[in-house]
Design a protein that fits this description.
Layout (H helix, E strand, L loop, with lengths): L14 H4 L39 H5 L5 H9 L12 H24 L6 H14 L7 H10 L1 H11 L1 H7 L2
Helix pairs in contact: 3-4, 4-5, 4-6, 4-7, 5-7
Bound molecules: iron/sulfur cluster.
Length: about 170
């Protein structure tokens, strides 16, 4: 089963570059998407990690890439990183956004698997999960194809159809 939780040790701080944030309750300053956070250290560690909430960065504590970051770095880019090879930055950020969506859908399907599904629903769940976990792993190219494939829409449609099952379970 794919790890659906962030593992920063095996990532290259993709979230600290990819995401935009606005100064406010969750973040201490504005940052544009695609721009490395000024608190990010050369070794991909956060310079204020031990005091993020106090420094006004509760949003960083709350964010979880759902395992997309380490998978992009280790699987799609074979452990390379954008500091050593700056030309990798744009493709890594693109793959990160796509992989985050894949992992979010997998997490939703994992939750749906706990519902009392009919046999056809179980089969559809298995088909969708298999589509999100290709046997050969993801590559930049297959992630781009995923984006255009309509699979995300199929998962969302399937989850909408399970609404009645979830409602029946409510106490
Ligand atoms: S404050 Fe730290 S955790 Fe938050 S984006 Fe910047 S480097 Fe990353």
């Amino acid at each position: 089963m794919v790890e659906l939780k962030g593992d920063c040790e095996n990532c290259a701080a993709l979230c600290c570059v990819a995401l935009a944030f606005d100064k406010g309750d969750m973040f201490g300053f504005d940052k544009a998407a695609g721009q490395a956070c000024p608190e990010l250290q050369p070794d991909f560690r956060c310079g204020i990690h031990g005091r993020l909430p106090e420094a006004g960065f509760a949003g960083c504590v709350q964010y979880d890439c759902l395992g997309a970051g380490q998978r992009v770095v280790q699987q799609v880019f074979a452990g390379q990183n954008w500091r050593n090879t700056p030309t990798l930055l744009a493709p890594m950020l693109q793959a990160f956004a796509q992989m985050r969506q894949v992992h979010e859908l997998l997490l939703l399907l994992q939750t749906a698997g706990g519902l009392p599904l009919s046999e056809p629903q179980k089969q559809e769940l298995a088909r969708l999960k298999a589509g999100l976990q290709p046997d050969t792993g993801w590559t930049s190219q297959t992630l781009r194809l995923f984006e255009r494939s309509g699979l995300a829409g199929e998962v969302q449609q399937f989850l909408r159809e399970l609404k009645d099952v979830a409602i029946k379970m409510k106490p």
